[in-house]
Amino acid sequence: MAKIAVGLVTDRYAKKSPEDPIAAVQPRMFKQLVGKGHPEFSTGRQQDAVEYFQHLLEVMTRAERAGADRVPSGGSGGDDVSFTAAQFEFEVEERIQCVESGKVRYVTRRENVLPLEVPVDAATNKLEVERERELKRQKTESADTADKADDKADDDKEPIRPIVPFDACLAAFAADETVDDFYSTALQRKGVAAKRSRLKTMPPVLAVQVRRYYVAEDWTPRKLDVLVPMPETVDVESVLRGTGIAAGEETLTPAEEGESAHTIGGDEPAQPAIEPDADIVAQLVSMGFSENGSKRAALATGNSSAEGAAEWVFAHMEDPDFNDPVVASAPSSVPDTGPGASSAEGPNPESLMMLTSMGFTEVHATAALKACDGNIERAADWLFSRADDLDAAVAEVNSASAGQSVGATSASESKCLDGPGRYELFGIVSHMGGNTGCGHYVAHVKIDGTWHIFNDRKVAISQKPPLELGYLYFYRRVA
């Protein structure tokens, strides 16, 4: 990070030549360092900008924890708010209500990116889009087609793209969602629940992902060809701010829930292990994926659908254990099939070895993986943040009661930064290309009131930043 900063403000690393007079900083070393050891980011394949951003924050946090003693501003111990990643982190408050009993529960989780679905049906020019599609359909099916010149003119014509307002995306995020097969211990049976999400805290910098990618009917990843005009100033307080339990609401007590605090709903106790759905596995195998990988996808998505399993495959097909044999799992939780997953028998041996190679004992590493649900990156953070009194932290984990969610407790030890939900846009990452497997990312940054484009070696003032075509947006808080 220091070398990049020096390179951007001085000419120390800039190289010019008569053939190429433009001096540019190409941080290939930084990219290799950040992606080292990662099954995806260590390669040269097309990457997802949001996933890379989140991975970068994790790498930075681990480095800041390890260097806290020599860089006092980085914080120490459990003071997570001093780390860079804390500028982006916020708490999502989920409210789940059993429809029949009316009882509610509130679950809090930590995120660093606000994902917004794009409700295409809410497009302001929906009629125009449908009219154009109908004309194209009629022309394709008609025997009396126009001549070749007319066909070429139609091909060169800019298509009418759906225009979906930002407010519609916010409303879709805040809308109630129906949860089927919700096991309510208040009713002692399954029923229907309503779930909605709000932000319990508002971060200093709000990263917003406009979810443009999806899996088409032919199982290929596609990109929504849609315009989402993002405002340069937003106030999300009234729409997204969580209020917590309201007066008169009756909560589900832990005894009634019969489940850990980090799961939604729950399944009936003593359920038999579930097996991967044979039809889903067969569909994935027919697409060319391995049988073991297909089974993992079915289990990881709870046998919900072949489409959901396919999306999981596209996101995890490069995992080192993707083709490893799988075992049936209890339906109370979706299995974590990543390289750091823990099982009831103990932590993943590979994860344990990686943590002990950092200098931690096997006892410490085992407790960290237990506290972080087998996630090796979170476990490393957990260990570094408690280095001052690690034995006491391990003892607390080992003495925790069976019904307590240690992972949820450790995640809530440090509070997220909070403030008013008024923001101004200062950064855009946009993707040029038709799907996730190809294309090119560029960035636009607002500096001293002027937008600039950063496109590899090209850095210039941007006359028209792509406010409506971005994939990842960065908003900073304003007073």
Please give a quick description of this structure:
By secondary structure, the protein is of the alpha+beta class. Helix content is 31%, strand content 19%.
Report on the architecture of this protein:
The chain starts with a helix and ends with a strand. The protein is built from 16 helices and 14 strands. Strands 3, 6, 9, 10, 11, 12, 13 and 14 form an 8-stranded mixed sheet that branches. Strands 2-1-5-4 form a 4-stranded antiparallel sheet, with no helix packed on it. The protein has helices at 2-9, 28-35, 49-66, 126-141, 148-156, 166-174, 237-240, 254-257, 278-286, 291-300, 306-316, 349-356, 362-371, 376-385, 390-398, 406-411, and strands at 90-98, 104-111, 114-117, 177-184, 189-199, 205-211, 213-215, 221-223, 233-235, 422-432, 440-447, 450-455, 458-461, 470-477. Among the domains are: 2-80, no CATH class; 126-156, no CATH class; 278-411, Helicase, Ruva Protein, domain 3 (Orthogonal Bundle). It has 479 residues and is α+β, with helices and mostly antiparallel strands.
Characteristics:
alpha+beta; globular; 479 residues; Helicase, Ruva Protein, domain 3; four-stranded antiparallel sheet
Fraction of residues in β-strands: 15-25%
Give me the number of helical elements. Answer: 16
- Globally, the shape reads globular
Order of helices and strands: HHHEEEHHHEEEEEEHHHHHHHHHHEEEEE
Give the helix/strand class. Answer: alpha+beta
What proportion of the residues is helical, as a percent range?
25-40%
Major sheet summary line: 8 strands, mixed
Q: What is the CATH fold-level name of one domain?
A: Helicase, Ruva Protein, domain 3
The end-to-end span amounts to: 29 Å
CATH homology-level superfamily of one domain: Ubiquitin-associated (UBA) domain
Which consecutive residue ranges, at least 5 long each, have pLDDT under 50?
A: 74-78, 255-272, 329-344, 401-413
CATH C-level category of one domain: Mainly Alpha
Global Rg = 25 Å
Number-wise, the strands total 14
Rounded mean pLDDT score: 79
- The CATH architecture of one domain can be given as Orthogonal Bundle
